[in-house]
Write the structure tokens for this entry.
Amino acid sequence: MEPSFSRVDKPFTDYEVTPFFKYETVEDVEASRREKRPVMKTIELCELRIAGEKNYRPIVPADSIWQVQAGQPITYAERFGAEYRQFKTGATQSGSGTPLQELTPYGISQSQISLCRALQVYSIEAVHSLEGASLKALGVVGNELKRMAALWMADQARGGEAADQMAAMKRQIEELKAKLETQSVVESALSGVAFEAKDAAESAFAHMSDDELRAFVKERAGGVLRGNHSRETLLRMAEEA
């Protein structure tokens, strides 16, 4: 006989459902009819473990259509691509979300973690998403567990804000360093230009004798040059004239 598959009507969120892929050997009815003997085939199934639903585990073919988006059919294997790849490679299938053990600092006990697993709740995000009957299924600890999950989510949000602030500060520091480096390059270039200009000026008068320098400076100064000046002073006066 052909396997019976479940109808999945509710659009569960990613954290509400934990997929588990598996193989199952079933009879190929059409092939059996043709061959007039039982013909078996192996198919891939996706078992959907719904958070808060202890006895409800829809099972669908892995290649059946989950949704059609923009005209493109999306199978359950594609929707849960990471878990499907784990299944195909023989790795341990792990659901999405943060392990419940991370709530230990917030007060969750091992027995409460076990209770969550019994109700197919495997992550903090799944606890946080529980509402209505699914939340009530956790019993008297349901609201307390949801409070822990909310505190954890809030702390993660604050941690994300702090990380964003640190990243912004690092960007500002890098921008400031870049500006300082640019300023240093410009100042170095200007200093080099000034030094070259000075050298050029000095070389322009280097061929002149002291008497020629005195005559040049005297002419530029309006015919007045008092005192005896060293060659270095005469060169400077010639540059400034």
